[in-house]
Amino acid sequence: MRPLVRYIFFVFLLLLIGQRAAATHVRAGEITAKRISTTSLTYEITFTGYFDIQNGPAASEAQVDVQFFVGDTGPIRVERKIPYPNIGNNTTRNEYTFVYTFSAPGRFRISVRLDNRNNSVLNIGPPPTQELNFYVQSTLVINESLGQNRTPVLLNAPIDLAAVGQRYIHNPNAFDADGDSLSYRPVVPQQGTTRGNGQNLQYVDPNQVQPVGPREDGGTPATFSINPITGDLIWDAPSIPGYYNVAFVVEEWRNGVKIGEIVRDMQIIVVESNNDRPDLDPLPDLCVEAGSLIQQTIRATDRNGNPLTLTTNGGVYQASLVPAALATFALNPASAGVATGLFRWQTGCNHIRLEPYEVLFKVEDNPGPGTPNPSLFRKLVDIKTLRIRVYGPKPQNVRTEPAADASGRAFRVSWSSYQCQIPGAQIVIYRREGCTDFVADPCQTGMPAGLGYQEVGRVGVGETSYIDTNNGQGLRRGVRYSYRLVVEFPRPGASPTELNRLNGGGRSLVSDEFCADLPLLMPVITNVTVDSTSATQGVITVKWTRPIGVVPTPSDGPYQYRLFRATGLNGTDFTLVTTITTNLTPGAPDTLFVDRGLNTVQNAYRYRLDYYYTNNNALVKFDETEPASSVRLEQGAAESRQIRLDWTAIVPWSNNNQRHRVYREDRARPGTFNQIAEVAVLGPETFTYLDDGTDRFAADGVATITLSADSTYCYKVETVGTYDNDRIRPALLYNFSQIICVTPLDTIRPCPPVLSIDTLNCSELQPDAFCDQSTFTNNLSWEYPAQNAQGDDCDPNVVSYNIYYARYDDEEGALLTSILPPPTPPATTYAHTGLSSFAGCYYVTAVNRYGNESDPSNLVCKDNCPQFTLPNVFTPNGDGKNDVFRPFRCPSFVESIVFRVYNRWGTKVFETTDVSINWDGKNSAGQDLAAGQYFYEAVVQFESVRRNAQPLAVKGWIQLLR
Where is the signal peptide (predicted)? Predict the structure, then answer.
């Protein structure tokens, strides 16, 4: 290549680089994706970028392409779509779209990096910010079970101006066409690396840039936040003009699992403005039944009287996002400072979904006639979001009739054909015992919790009936059942594999109830009541009804009842106890049996009645009743001086939502029971009452007493139940439990004693105080108080004391001994003997006659008095006098020692760990040291109550004489 040609090429290359470098001033952007194939993992991926053209369109125009990374694959060069319009506020919107096929399911990061942000961004760094690149990423989860999943799309561009001192709001108007739920959270803006990764920039929230100003209402400090549910990003209020960049994540959720997220990095441009922002009237959240026509007036005002531009955006306007009838928005004629419009949307069955639709409305003011310096006018905006939830209509005309199945105890539930025949939707059948007057509020979709309904079946949305056999066990005669229906819908756009899982599609309102009971061609048991409590002569009376649906004639019969009994609340060892043959004559005593000779002290009993009719002169079993148990009363755990009563009855009728009766024996009149309470019962089969001696039922006289742990009290309860069936009489069913006699617990704890220990006064001890002593004793004494710290009287009935000991002050005490009578009361002193040192900690507890132990007393600890003194002269000359250097007298409580000797030049000549030292004047090699002055250092660890106590460091000099 000739020199001139090379020079021209080099200049052209520099110009090209400069042109690509000028592709700058990125304000905002995000990456979205949607699957476009049902046979392959093929997605359409789009980066939407917003570019600053404050100084002309060259930068935006120069960004002819961008480079994507998909996971570790890249860079992938993608050209810009045409056109790339100017959308106001000196901003263009550029889109870069390509199609990519993934080789396998997985979790993928998709990212884009662009050179050069705006310069002079105030809240990111390091400066200059034009040397920072722009980076965003999205996370795409590919799973075959998700079907043709699409990320949300952000329908509102981030281009609105913020004014100093005025609240700024932005909402991305995110819409998920698949009906997935969305949430929002802030993140730190990032810049990208060369391999498609991101790293956080230096960042502060815009409201933290100094100086911080007030909010729009004058309060302080300014705030900046994003609503995690609605996505409203609010800065209240900017104080410094300039550029600010913020970022947030839009998270996509399905069935409680996050399946993707996209990041929007956006720029907020704050300007000085004498203009006041306009206001949109608040918008209510709407909840409508599919098929309803929504007509909502939208109104905006401007306090300065400026002309207003009212616009709207949302998925409900786009056929690619929302099927069937689309919403419309019609503006009314404008007037000074006011703009109104009518939002209309004819909803339909295809619009049913769990998540609300969000429709964004934006009002922007414009300079009006007479506006001073209109060229300097800054347009400001306000944003409101209308949230619309579309639910399914409730099923209609629910009915039941006995089903012709083998058991004769089944219902056919039927209903009108459902009006929203959405493929994959299911009708869910619910049942409960008893009827309710519940009416669902609008938007209270599905079966509300707490009503007592349980799902018994589900069928396709095209079905109009279901046979309920109670899982083949048969329904119970005499019980009134309530049925309701709910329709569950698949998520919009669900794949065929998802249709049966009903992911995210929402539910209908619950239907009106239909109540019914099976024809009473069978008797039902109404009473199993304990008449007498005895280990051998207990008595239980069992009652039942006649088969109400049978009208015998003289030629019919005979009929027969066979009563069976099993032991226990859930007993299954049924044995025949009586046979009663009858002609079903009204008034005949054939529906009662008194069962005698039972052990009602130890056992509950369970009864079942079999019913026979005559066919061809032979008795044939028609059916058997649901078993019913007697009421079993037990003593439960309780607090001090109280008795807890628990009772259970497993019966075919309901004992809930009634007031059971509790009786206590009058101790002055043995055998006479006084009602002391009525217990409102709301729960299932086990009921409870806590007796503190108070008589809470005054109608039969008040017999309040003080319960004592030294006495026994007898109780019985009477349950009240019902079949909730007008054809079964009596309407209320009363049944007694057996009698139990119990003693209340006494859990009152004694007061903690006040403990003291004999102490050592180390300053008054002689150096040889413990020389001839190998064992030591700690003497404890304590007092039992008359009252505790709260001023309550202490239990005087203390029968023993427990003494706890710990060697160190940081370890938990272990039981050392117990002080027991005699004498009575027990002694309040103790000598802990045989110790190797005084070091240790103690506390004492008191124990009353019921075995209840008090809280610990105060903790007392005792430590040793260290005894360690060294001489400064010794004469290792072999004359048997003062030949060995050792501590004066005896070193007491020394646990370990490190003793070192140094000559006058600082050289170590001797070292030992012998507690008695016993240095004979030789060096460590066994050679005699010369007479003279030496220096020593002793590090002494004493036995102490403190674990790893600080050792004593002793330094001094020694005169070695020969």
Answer: 1-22
Structure tokens at 198: 């991101």
Closest CA to 589 of 580, 577, 598, 601: 580
Domain boundary among 629, 663, 695: 629
Q: For residue 633, give both structure tokens.
A: 């009363």
427 assigned to some structural domain: no
Helix (H) or strand (E) holding 404: none
The first and second tokens of residue 25, run together, are: 């001033």
Residue 774 burial (CB count, 10 A)? 7
Domain of 781, CATH number, reads 2.60.40.10
Q: Is the dihedral of CA 633, 634, 635, 637 positive or negative?
A: negative
| In the predicted structure, residue 19 carries a pLDDT above the cut 70 | no
β-bridge mates for residue 782, sequence order: 755
Three-class DSSP category at 266: strand
Question: How far is Cα 486 from Cα 501, in angstroms, rounded to an integer?
Answer: 15
Single-letter code of the amino acid located at 813: G
Q: Does 488 map to a domain?
A: no
Asked whether residue 536 carries a pLDDT value surpassing 90, the answer given is: yes
Residue 75's nearest CA partner among 85, 65, 84, 83 is: 65
Is 254 strand, coil or helix? strand
What's the pLDDT score for residue 231? Answer: 96
Q: Is 445 exposed, middle or buried (0-12, 13-18, 19+ CB in 10 A)?
A: buried
Confidence of residue 346 (pLDDT cuts 50, 70, 90): very high
Residues sharing a CB contact under 8 Å with residue 702, sequence separation 6 or more, in sequence order: 695
Q: Are residues 294 and 347 in the same domain?
A: yes
- Transcribe 327-352 into DSSP letters: PEEEEPPPBTTEEEEEEEEE--GGG-
Q: 483: closest CA among 463, 449, 453?
A: 453
Question: Does residue 647 belong to any structural domain of this protein?
Answer: yes
| Residues 547-568, mean pLDDT to the nearest whole number | 85
End-to-end CA distance of the chain: 101
Tens digit of pLDDT for each residue in 890-930? 778 898 999 999 998 889 999 999 999 999 999 999 999 99
Write down which residue in 373, 391, 409 finishes a domain: 391
- Strand, helix or coil for residue 692: coil
Question: Whole-angstrom Cα distance, residue 94 to residue 89?
Answer: 15
Taking Cα atoms as reference points, which of 112, 122, 138, 155 lies closest to residue 26? 112
Could you tell me if 264 and 289 lie in one domain? no
For residue 100, give the nearest of 47, 148, 36, 49 by alpha carbon.
36
Where does 587-671 show beta strands of DSSP type E?
Answer: 592-598, 605-615, 618-624, 628-629, 632-636, 643-648, 658-665
Yes or no: say if 693 and 703 are a contact pair by the CB < 8 Å rule: no
Residues 162, 49 share a domain = yes
Choose among 676, 746, 672: nearest CA to 710.
746
Is the predicted pLDDT of residue 21 greater than 70, yes or no? no
622 and 685 inside one domain = no
If asked whether residues 877 and 764 sit together in one domain, one would say: no
Residue 503 in any domain: the answer is no
Q: How sure is the predictor about 348, in pLDDT bands with cuts at 50, 70 and 90? A: very high
| Residue 670 lies in domain | 632-742
CA 422 to each of CA 418, 425, 492: distance values in angstroms, whole numbers, following the listed order: 10, 6, 10
The fraction of the chain above a pLDDT of 90, given in percent, is 67
Q: How many domains does the chain have?
A: 6
Decide: helix, strand or coil at residue 431. Answer: strand
Has residue 555 got a pLDDT over 70? Answer: no
Q: How many CB atoms lie within 10 A of CB 436?
A: 13
Q: Do 310 and 290 belong together in one domain?
A: yes
Whole-model pTM over 0.70: no
Closest among 843, 856, 854, 866 to 757, alpha carbons compared: 843
940 Cβ partners below 8 Å, 6+ apart?
866, 868, 891, 894, 896, 897, 951, 952, 953, 954
